[in-house]
Amino acid sequence: MIPDKRVNSFHVGQVWESPKGTFYRVMDRQRGGKATLRLDADGSGRKTVRDWDAVIGWVLYGDPEHADEYPTGQETRA
Questions:
Q1: What b-and-e string marks burial along 33-72, b requiring 16 or more CB atoms within 10 Å of the CB?
Q2: Residue 43: what are its φ and ψ, rounded to 5°?
Q3: pTM
Q4: C-alpha–C-alpha distance, residues 16 and 35, integer Å
Q5: DSSP state of 78
Q6: 4-77 has CATH 2.30.30 classification
Q7: Rounded distance between C-alpha atoms, residue 58 and residue 72, angstroms
């Protein structure tokens, strides 16, 4: 089971899916709960900054520290 601390905040390398189905990879964490994200699961798209409060309803799609716990992705809701 993925610990709450991994699901309740951004961590570098994670991939999140927005309610519209867009994937974002966490590239960097900033102070105050913000993170630098890149569009696409591989992180090749444009850069954006999101606050943790602005991602209600997003789904944790992948976490490199717990890759064995994602048989098909989309297991944990934020």
A1: ebbbbbeebebeeeeeebeeeebeebbbbbbeebeeebee
A2: 75, 25
A3: 0.78
A4: 12
A5: -
A6: yes
A7: 17
